[in-house]
Amino acid sequence: MLNLVIFGAPGSGKGTQSEVLIEKYGFDHISTGDILRAEIRQESELGKAAKSYMDAGQLVPDSLIIDMIEKVLRERKPKKGIILDGFPRTVAQAEALDALFARLDTQVHAVLDLQVAEDELVERLLKRGQDSGRSDDNLETIQKRLGVYHAQTAPIAEHYAKKGVHHPIAGSGAITDITARIARVIDALG
Q1: What is the tens place of the pLDDT at every residue in 39-90?
Q2: From 51, 71, 89, 181, the catalytic residue
Q3: Does 146 have pLDDT greater than 90?
Q4: Is 145 a catalytic site residue?
Q5: Where are the alpha helices (DSSP H) in the chain?
Q6: Of 7, 16, 150, 162, which has the fewest CB atoms closer than 10 Å, so is most exposed?
Q7: Catalytic residue among 51, 71, 128, 181
Q8: Which of 145, 162, 163, 181 is catalytic?
Q9: What is the pLDDT of residues 83-122, one digit of tens each?
């Protein structure tokens, strides 16, 4: 089983590539946003705890997100592997994820870092906003999101590079070309 993290700035194509890789390899997709919403909808103990933080305008603590990921892994028992999308977002979250996987006697096998030039990211996000009507895809919000990414999320690359599992992937060009670059990394892990 392979544990993969798909990683990159907003607009780098994480969601698109996750869908393609799930189809190609049969990986289980773990989106922390989806898990969080499902737990809240089910009114589970984890969901109630998360909702109490959200209702108070606070971020859901990392430990609670890790507990949700662990629950999903134990319930789904993925056979081929998982793709984590949207987590970790900070080095502290990466360390917590590493600790969870160590408890489960596994590890993050590869961090697939989709690298796209900043001007292309902005262009992609503005286009996505026009096409989908997403209100958070406007220039001011995009610049804030990219700033947060560079300050808080980008350092994860170095964390995983030290572990030898960080794989920079050129994230520009045709979707099929990007998928082929990612597939070369995954197939080498085989």
Answers
A1: 999 999 999 999 998 888 888 899 999 999 999 999 988 889 999 988 998 9
A2: 89
A3: yes
A4: yes
A5: 14-25, 32-42, 45-55, 62-76, 91-103, 118-132, 139-148, 155-162, 175-189
A6: 162
A7: 128
A8: 145
A9: 998 899 899 999 999 999 999 999 999 999 999 999 999 9
Residue 128 is a catalytic residue = yes
Residue listed under structure tokens 């909702």? 51
The active-site residue, picked from 80, 134, 163, 184, is 134
CA count, 13 A, side-chain hemisphere, 145: 17
User: Global pTM?
Assistant: 0.89
Q: CA angle, corner 128, sides to 123 and 133, nearest 5?
A: 135
Mean pLDDT for the stretch of residues 20-32: 93
Q: CA angle, 157 as apex, 152 and 162 as ends, to 5°? A: 125
In the annotation, is 89 catalytic?
yes
Distance CA 41, CA 147 (A): 32
